[in-house]
Amino acid sequence: xxxxxxxxxxxxxxxxxxxxxxxxxxxxxxxxxxxxxxxxxxxxxxxxxxxxxxxxxxxxxxxxxxxxxxxxxxxxxxxxxxxxxxxxxxxxxxxxxxxxxxxxxxxxxxxxxxxxxxxxxxxxxxxxxxxxxxxxxxxxxxxx
Length: 144
Hints:
mainly alpha, 78% helix, disordered C terminus
């Protein structure tokens, strides 16, 4: 497996970008476009997903990346909730709602998987760093 060096290579970010593009397209149509509050809020939630993935990736630690992935995942939930509002307001058909909801759920699952992987790497790194700080004799207790 090759090492990912750019956030643009992350599948989570790529899928979030597709979702964001679709959200912008649908919110610029018909009555949805006239509801500035909801359309702006759902756009911000979508942008937040991809932005937090990118920003977390560029941070200096796995802990920070994990934190930003948690925020991205929460933004996925926010966006899904707003999709219900848009559907209930009549801005989305059932097919549109299903399509957006499915993609938002997929992004959430991918972000969650990435977050779990980062957490696992973080814990492994902590264990490795902890054992490297010990001197060879500090692992064994001697009796005096």
